[in-house]
Amino acid sequence: MKTITSIALFILCLVAVQPTMAQQSNTPGITTSSSVSGTLSESQKIDQLIESIRGMKGATFIRNGTEHSCQEAAEHLKAKLEKHGDKIKSAEDFIEYLATKSSMSGEVYKIRFADGREEPTGEVLLKTLGQLK
């Protein structure tokens, strides 16, 4: 009985401590602490959006008319975030200012899915963001 009580006490301690732990971010200007309710910080949301692109199976990222793998797309978006992160305050900012179109040509980024349909990357990321909230 003493062992069960010790285990229960240990679990209670873990549950009480975990929500107050905050993750650190290397991205300047983005809020990094999670609230006690367990919601994601803006930095965590952006990371999740980038990882959602990276994890797309059979999809192709189209940037300035050139096809790229989703791995390359994720790296490109991450590089843009590192370069311009001080101007980005939210996941919505990230989508609108960095992940929707080329800052050089103005061309909209697109994703071609395995079934052949194409969607603007910004729209795909807004849907994904909606699922994160």
From TrEMBL:
Keywords, ordered alphabetically: Signal
Domain of life of the source: Bacteria
Record's signal peptide: 1-22
Pfam family name, one: DUF5329
Name of the featured protein: DUF5329 domain-containing protein
Source organism: Pontibacter populi
